Amino acid sequence: MNERATTCSFTGHRPQSLPWGTREDDPRCKQLKMELSARLEGLYEAGWRHFLCGMALGCDMYFAEAVLQLRAEHPDVTLEAVIPCGSQPDRWGIAQRQRYNRLLDACDSVNVLQIRYTPDCMQKRNRYMVDHSSLLLACYTGYSGGTQSTLLYAERQGIQTLVIEIETA
């Protein structure tokens, strides 16, 4: 789709790893969403136009919504959903699936990497996003897990990283 040089991928934590969990009305969550929007505006001004999102619960959803908000102001922005497997939302609640489907419908493109879940499909998704971008934006608590692994992979690949730190205390 777009050139790698103007593509930014995203990684971030799911609700269970966030200090506020699923409570998006928490002031810390609202602050993170504002920070994401501000960073995305800065990335736009610096030349990034295409954004890759893994569409997981939590920070991925915040990111997708912030990119769509940016696209409303700058029509040359594109959002690509990179889905690890077709069954990604199958175990989510109704409201979570509705939000996911609403975001997918708003994406410029949807890339499903494989049909069925396998133990490594999330890692494959994360590596795909890093391998197709020149910048990785992360919302990160410092805890080990998929976000940390993706950041380390990006650093090993020589991809620029930009981290929004999430305070856990």
Description of the molecule:
By secondary structure, this protein is α/β, with parallel strands linked by helices. It has one domain: Rossmann fold (3-Layer(aba) Sandwich), CATH 3.40.50. Helix content is 41%, strand content 19%. Strands 4-3-2-1-5-6 form a six-stranded parallel β-sheet, sandwiched between helices. Helix 1 crosses helix 2 (59-73), helix 2 runs parallel beside helix 3 and helix 4 (121-131) runs parallel beside helix 5 (146-156). The radius of gyration is 15 Å and the shape is globular.
Quick recap:
The chain contains five helices and six strands, in the order βαβαβαβαβαβ. The longest helix is centred in the first third of the chain and has 19 residues.
User: Which structural class is indicated by helix and strand composition?
Assistant: alpha/beta
Stretches where pLDDT falls below 50 for ≥5 residues?
none
Mean pLDDT: 96
Helix-strand topology string? EHEHEHEHEHE
What is the straight-line distance between the termini? 40 Å
The CATH architecture designation is 3-Layer(aba) Sandwich
Q: How large is the radius of gyration?
A: 15 Å
Helix percent reads 40-55%
**How do the strands line up in the largest sheet?**
4-3-2-1-5-6
Instruction: List the domain count as a whole number.
Output: 1
Q: Report the major sheet.
A: 6 strands, parallel
Percent of residues in beta strands? 15-25%
Quick one: how many beta strands? 6
Q: What is the CATH C-level name? A: Alpha Beta
Q: What shape does the CA trace take?
A: globular
Q: Count of helices? A: 5
Task: Report the CATH topology name.
Answer: Rossmann fold
